[in-house]
Amino acid sequence: MTGVRLEKLVKRYGDVQVVHGIDLEVAEKEFVVLVGPSGCGKSTTLRMIAGLEEISDGTLSIGERKVNDVAPKDRDVAMVFQNYALYPHLDVAENIAFGLRIRRVPKEEITRSVTEVAAILGLTDYLKRKPADLSGGQRQRVAMGRAIVRHPAVFLFDEPLSNLDAQLRTQMRAEIKRLHTRLGVTSVYVTHDQVEAMTLADRIVVMSGGRIEQVGTPMELFMNPVNLFVAGFIGSPPMNQLKATIVAGADGPEAVLGSKACIPLPAAEGLHAAIGQDVILGIRPEDVLLDGDGERNRVPIELELVEPLGSEALVHGLVDGEPFVIKTDTYGDISHLQRITRFHVDAARVKVFDAASGAALYRADGVAGQARGQILDKARARAPDTARLSLPETSRGQA
Amino acid sequence: MSVPPVDPALPAGTAAIERTGAPLVSPGASSTLLPIGTDASTDAVTPPPRQGVGERLRWLGRHLRREWQLYVLLAPTIIWLLLFLYKPMYGLQIAFKDYSIFRGVAASPWIGFEHFHTLFGSDQFLRALKNTVIISFYSLLIGFPVPILLALMFNEVLNKTFRKSAQTIVYLPHFISSVIIAGIVITAFSPSAGVINTALGWFGIEPIYFLTKPEWFRPIFIGTGIWQEAGFQSIVYLAAIAGVSPTLYESAVVDGASRWQMMWKVTVPCILPTIIIMLIIRIGSILEVSFEMIILLYQPATYETGDVVNTFIYRQGIQAGQYDFAAAAGLFNAVVAFVLVVAANSISKRYSRTSLW
Question: Distance between CA atoms of B76 and B88, rounded to whole angstroms?
Fold first, then answer.
């Protein structure tokens, strides 16, 4: 088995610790994406896996072998860099063959491997060109070719698409996905682009401040973020966040916004919030209804701007003075969007987070049980005399 | 792509924007489409194509009014170049004249290529030319790679203190006056108290009069030049090495390259353009052998191998007062250097895509 296992992995530069003991297991053939903002430690983690950074503490295993002190060349990994790292003096064929030549692979085998890889990546016509004569996308394909040709146990990608324009990025993303499906090699991919993470990953690891915030499939992270950081990072546009207070309503708990708008909280297993607790409501831009009816769930919005994107549009406005984005279908016309003064919330999809810690208070699947337990303790400590809400199990799977 | 009509009311050279929001088109340049939002007054930057002299002068006037600050900044350098490099060229004509210091440059009579005939008929000049070529060739052959090797070696030293100390030691001779360097060399090779002869004496070798023996002049001169300048010249290559993307090394490490392989397969090829530029510059000055060091080290006994074109010009021009004859030798030197630079540049451009211009 050639998975990758990180146990309590730590990276320190002098007295500064940048990766704080992370645990992660990447299964064989799995495509795992490390995502997070700049400085979150994702690239450092990847470079520790590659052997380009020393591991300060913890254990790194590739397959069954502990590789903490194994030289990069002996780890059986190949890495694709953000700026391609192509040798400017070598042509495409020589660049792809570089690793094989270093390892003194017989010439005939090198020629055969390079031809094969070039065919896979559509580089056959460019084999004699220098990197300077290639487009960004072609250069990135050469960089991938250099990784593929060695048949490594693990592929490491360090923001490989960041230098490409938007259109090419989408194209290359699909190519990477196809390549992974075809080759089935365990891959660890670093990016700060959540769209890349969502589209490529079997599992996403969201990192922040040198720690893992959440690990899960793209849809798990999208549907059940464990905290506000993950909620804000996954999804485009990001989840809207509204300050609210929990009150006891006639049919159950409700969240009251600053504008006094009232949103009944969906009844589901595991909402642990106290009456009077300050919370943040997480509302995805696409979970908003513009044609809703009635007083309940109705939130007033001060319209600022409508951005038409073709089949859909983004409506920017202010709710309680905070920015709020709505994503809606246009049906070929955006004139009706210019007159929006209020919207209805799909209450079943509202996420609830503790205002103080940012941790999710509302989970249906128990994925973030530990985080939820911690926040429960904090909530109880803050409001020991308030009643704990036990909600009926009716909207399972939505929260 | 169709070209939108140009409004005749617009001044020549001014770009027009189609009302439909189509690209901007310069008149007379149907294939040059500029994106929307491009400054419509770009005519101040690019001269209008295919215009008369009057129109071009008007464009130049507009351009100067617009960019005068840049030309003010440029002026001191241009004045310096004109005054010290171009104005003296006026005096080059004495190479073709029977120059008299009393008649002056302009009034001296023309004598055509007579000085050049004399020059190539002079054994002394031909000897100086031969010595110049031999000394330059060996300086290039031995001296040119040394700074590159030094830079590569410094790059491999991981201990910062050791590296900085070593760098300081090899840079130091560059900052010492040539007179002092020559003094050190003369003392070191002295047959009575010189460190070299003393060391040779330990092995029972009789003292050698190095600086009076023609066969030793060139090795001593070339060695001194390398000692004095190699360290300082390595700075250029160290800067080039610093410019190599670290990811190339990281990529090579992951691919399994050793430090030795990285040096030869990554560092050297990546600094090759710098090496070629430096080589072109060196080839251009192949006839410019270090004049003052030769003057300081040579003596009549070593003229046979040590007299070069520059020292020949000095002796003939300054000491013997034959300014016209020396100017002819100097002009010959300059023409050869010019031809060599152009040739080296063209060859480099053709085969390595690296060139000075």
Answer: 18
Query: Mean pLDDT across the stretch B291-316?
Result: 89
**Residue B37 resides in a domain:** no
User: What's the pLDDT band for A70 if we cut at 50, 70, 90?
Assistant: very high
Q: What is the pLDDT of residues B241-258, one digit of tens each?
A: 999 999 999 999 998 899
The alpha carbon of residue B264 is apart from the nearest alpha carbon of chain A, in Å, by 12
- The answer to whether residue B39 sits within a structural domain is no
Cβ partners under 8 Å of residue B326, min gap 6: B313, B314, B316, B317, B318
Is the domain of B98 the same as that of B199? no
**B212 and B140, same structural domain?**
yes
Is B98 part of any domain? yes
Question: What pLDDT does residue A387 have?
Answer: 34
Mean pLDDT value across residues B100-121: 91
> Do residues B92 and B145 share a domain?
no
Sheet holding A203-208, edge to edge: A77-80, A154-158, A186-191, A31-35, A203-208, A211-216
Residues B233 and B325 in one domain: yes
Contact assignment for A87 to B248 by CB distance below 8 Å: yes
Place of tokens 């991981």: B158
How distant is the Cα of B307 from the closest Cα of chain A, in angstroms?
Answer: 42
Cβ distance A81 to B247 less than 8 Å, yes or no, reads yes
Residues of chain A with CATH 3.40.50.300: 4-223
What pLDDT, on a 0 to 100 scale, did the predictor assign at position A335? 84
A259 contacts A300 by C-beta, under 8 angstroms: yes
Residues B179/B180/B182/B185 CA torsion (nearest 10 deg): 180
B292/B214 same-domain check: yes
Task: Return the exposure string of A237-250: e unless at least 16 CB atoms fall within 10 Å of the residue's CB, then b.
Answer: eebbbbbbebeeee
Give me the residues of A, 154-193, that contact B with CB < 8 A: none
List all residues of chain A from 47 to 76 with a beta carbon under 8 Å from chain B. Answer: 50-52, 72-74
Give the per-residue pLDDT at A155. 93
Query: Which of B248, B249, B254, B275 to probe the A interface (max A CBs under 10 A)?
Result: B254
Query: For residue B333, what are the domain limits?
Result: 114-352
State both tokens at A173.
């993303």
Q: Is the pLDDT of residue B29 over 70?
A: no
Q: What is the CATH number of the domain that holds B304?
A: 1.10.3720.10
Query: In this structure, are B244 and B208 located in the same domain?
Result: yes
The residue of chain A with its CA nearest to that of B352 is A89
- Taking CB atoms and an 8 Å cutoff, what residues of chain A touch B243? none
For β-strands A240-249 and A252-257, DSSP reports them as: antiparallel
- Give the per-residue pLDDT at B4: 39
Beta carbons of B254 and A98 less than 8 Å apart:
no
Identify the residue with better confidence: A383 or A88.
A88
Question: Which of B84, B107, B130 is a domain's end point?
Answer: B107
Which of chain A's residues have a Cβ under 8 Å away from the Cβ of B270?
Answer: 87-89
Cβ within 8 Å, pair B251-A79? yes
ipTM of the modeled complex: 0.78
Write out chain A residues lying below 8 Å of B274, CB-based: none
What is the torsion angle, in degrees rounded to the nearest 10, for the CA atoms of residue B102, residue B105, residue B106 and residue B107?
30
Give the closest residue to A87 by CA, choosing from A78, A97, A79: A97
Q: Which amino acid is at A84?
A: Y
Question: Does residue B342 share a domain with residue B299?
Answer: yes
Residues of B in contact with A90 (CB under 8 A): 269
| CATH 3.30.70.890 is the classification of domain A4-223 | no
- The answer to whether A85 faces chain B, any CB pair under 8 Å, is yes
Are the beta carbons of A73 and B248 separated by less than 8 Å?
no
Q: Do A52 and B270 touch (CB under 8 A)?
A: no
Mind listing the pLDDT tens digit for each residue in B48-87? 566 788 899 999 999 999 999 999 999 999 999 999 999 9
A39 in reach of chain B (CB within 8 A): no
Q: Are residues B175 and B314 in the same domain?
A: yes
pLDDT of residue A251: 76
Q: How far is A75 from chain B (nearest CA, A)?
A: 9
Query: Which of B248, B255, B269 is closest, CB to CB, to A102?
Result: B255
